[in-house]
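BUG: 3D viewer hangs when loading the predicted structure for this chain

Environment: internal workstation, default settings.
Expected: structure renders.
Actual: progress bar stalls at 90%.

Input used:
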Amino acid sequence: MFFNFDGMLFTAVLHPIVAAIAQILIAISFILALLRIIKGPDVADRVVVLDLIAGMLLAYTLFHAIVQADVNFMNVSLAIAVIGFLGTVAIARYLEYRVANKEETGNVQDPGRE
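Structure tokens produced before the viewer hung:
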């Protein structure tokens, strides 16, 4: 049977070679994203890459949940998605404040140092 419904999760029987190739590709993309964070020319570019890394971490946990047929990883992936979204929104608001403050005063101050 190719698909097995065990109550809450559709699990696919993956060939071990396909699973290994998928893990290698996710790891390579993670390394390339880390290199982009280091090289990124702007803070906004780094925020986008951090959001990408959160998405890749989400993909890896969902992949692991499917391979291991473990429903508990679904809760972990939901938490990763929420934290990644809230982190991106928080950093975007900080950058928006920073740009607005720079336009008004001509210098950049951290919001916590007022």
